[in-house]
Fold this protein.
Amino acid sequence: MAGTVVMSLAVAVPAYADSHSGTMQTDDAIKSDAKKAGNAAEREYEEAKEYGFEQKDDFSAWVEEKTAALGRKYDEVSAAAAEQSDETADDLAEAWAATKASVSESLDDVQDSSAETWENVKAGTVKALQDAERALSDDPAAQ
């Protein structure tokens, strides 16, 4: 019995440890790290808004890279959702399919854009990517 309790505690204790002090970080610290990551993502989206029409190919490559990263995140979130229930996994799959289609359509619009339509197309593409990221977020408030 004692071995079971010790093993249970070893499995149940979060693995998010502070490597400098050897102490466990609090939920607040974990949320802080998540917020920092979110802030970095927002900065990345802000920087993407700086692409000019003459950088359309670079912007397209960035969108494709970001879409691939979101696809990997979807795979992770989907696996976790499947453990909860088939309905949760199905709902997530539907939402992801719609979001992915929106991003794909936006990327097509980027390729077809002109200097006159560039700013609107670019803004729509950035918004589609942000919506996709929010859809996959663990934070319900971000959705």
